[in-house]
Amino acid sequence: MRILLIDDHQLIGKSLELTFKNFPEISAFKYLANTADIFHTLDTFKPALVLMDIHLKGENGLDLGKRILQLYSVKLVFLSGFNLIEYQNIAMKLGAHGFLNKDIAVDELVANLKKVVYEDKLIFPTNIESHKITDREKEILQYLAQGVKQTAIATELSISERTVRNHIYAINEKLKTNSVVSTIVKAVELGIIEVKF
């Protein structure tokens, strides 16, 4: 397996470089701390898999990942410290093969990468589907987070109050919450909505 890591945290890059030497199935490993050389490296190194952080200096890893997948037939796995449902959904939609948390054990990381490369498996957290919030539900969540009352939301969206209540019930079921406050807190934690102060 030829693996290219793109991560601006040098400690992670260097530690994986050392650790991966203990795994004979990883035939070659290259690490980039910045994205300037990425396309040249993809052309010359020809990795089977790109392992990439989402938060890169001056670059959104998800956008970069999309460009990589449009130009190269390479498998892409995101390795992130932010285990947000929204990021996972975007990664899945753009065609990534996986989304792994940075606190994963190295043995488990390598086992997952082997499944992606050799078995063409998709590796995403198992609870990703249960949190699928629709665009309309996101819209309602955003209004609730701004303190807008249900009657005003109904007027704003040209729907009935009952429809708003049904949406809120559906959101609570998906997020396993039982109050507006706990729903907003969980939605923010999961990256589904942003609260601007």
Oligomer: single chain
* CATH fold name of the largest domain: Rossmann fold
| Total separate domains | 2
Major sheet strand order: 2-1-3-6-7
CATH architectural category of the largest domain: 3-Layer(aba) Sandwich
Largest sheet: 5 strands, parallel
Rg over alpha carbons? 20 Å
Gross geometry: elongated
SSE pattern: EHEHEEEHEHEHHHHH
Broad structural category: alpha/beta
Q: Kindly report the average pLDDT value.
A: 89
Using the coordinates above, name the CATH class of the largest domain. Answer: Alpha Beta
Number of strands: 7
Describe this structure in words.
The termini are far apart. This protein has helices at 10-20, 38-45, 61-71, 85-93, 106-119, 135-145, 150-157, 161-175, 180-189; strands at residues 2-6, 28-32, 49-52, 55-56, 59-60, 75-80, 98-101. Helix 7 packs across helix 8 and helix 8 (161-175) packs across helix 9. By secondary structure, the protein is of the alpha/beta class. Helix 4 links the parallel strand 6 (75-80) and strand 7. The strands form two sheets. The protein has a five-stranded parallel β-sheet, with helices on both faces. The chain has two domains: 2-129, Rossmann fold (3-Layer(aba) Sandwich); 133-189, Winged helix-like DNA-binding domain superfamily/Winged helix DNA-binding domain (Arc Repressor Mutant, subunit A, Orthogonal Bundle), CATH 1.10.10.10.
